[in-house]
Amino acid sequence: MSKLFVNTIAPNSGDTVTVSGSLVTTGKLTIGDASTDTVAFEAEISSSLIPDVGATYDLGTMSKSWRNLHAHGLGHIHTASIDRLQVLNVVSGSLIPDDDATYALGTMANSWGSLHVHGLGHIHTASIVKLSS
Q: In sequence order, which residues have a C-beta less than 8 Å from that of residue 66 and are 6 or more positions away?
């Protein structure tokens, strides 16, 4: 395998540098030098996205949020702020009330321990209360 050592790479013409094949870097990799720069993925990600420091970085902002989250597996959320969620329909034959928006599933005093959903969950409204430990 050949190695190429350079300080600066500049395109021969235009503003694009193209690498054919695989590109492997070592050490720190910085993409862009301003918040106005963008990164577009035309390929799929084939590894985990793990921050180097826990509870430090955000995924989106209040003004630039991601649209949908699709996850298959367990989601760990330390603190949640939910604006609004929507119930679309009930799965056939399971826990179907006879009157719309009348019955509760548990109470503050008698709540369910865990909710496990395989698929998409929609909630019309939610109130998140921090419980003391």
A: 59, 60
